[in-house]
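Bug report

Summary: structure tokens for ABC transporter permease differ between web form and batch submission.
Environment: batch mode, default settings.
Steps: 1) Submit the sequence below via batch. 2) Compare with the web form result.

Sequence submitted:
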Amino acid sequence: MGFGPGGWGPLMIRAAGMTLSLAVCGYLTGLLAGVLGAWAKLQKSRVLYRIADVYTTILRGVPDLLVIFIFYCGSAATISPIFELFGHKGFFALPGFLAGFLAIGVVSGAYQTEVLRGAVQAVGNGEIEAARAYGMTGFLMFRRVLCPLALRYALPGLANVSQLVLKEAALVSVTGVVELVRQAQLGAGATRDPFSFYLAASCLYLAITSVTGLLFQFAEARAMQGVSRS
């Protein structure tokens, strides 16, 4: 485990970068899905609410590994017949990275839906009524009042989801992506020194989670400026 000739250090760092890329892409995809899901659950339409409720119930109840398999193998079941129509036979599927972060995204989106919905519902009616009394339009009220206030309540939950997404990135190795855990397995098998590689992988995970935790703490401190805490 070093950075000299024949060392596995650069490969481990590169795998950590792959893990971080999967986590970031999956988290942002989930944030988009969470915003849409929370919006649907907060509407008066029972149809939209039921669709969002089915989404969150299924994705939170199905193991994440199965969702990754569904995205990867399901894409193959869809894409391969299309290629066969043009005379190309074989196994065709979404790239492992794309299928992986999309699967992570839809799973994390189910959790972020509930976090964002709860945060919006935690905003007091007095602030909304005051914004309407000032004559704010719907979008202006959302941008200046609802979004900043809801963000204060949502940030702790969103931070927890980010840690879950980082751990879920380790499952994407089933699609052939060499992320941190997979690289540690390869190094341990080649050198027969599993302790060093798994310890190094654990340290890299802790480094990533520590940095993301500090970023969310900074964001929460900024969001809570001007608010007294008892």
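Above is the batch result. After comparison, the two runs are identical; trailing whitespace caused the diff. The CA atoms of residues 40 and 47 lie 9 Å apart. The chain has one domain: 11-223.
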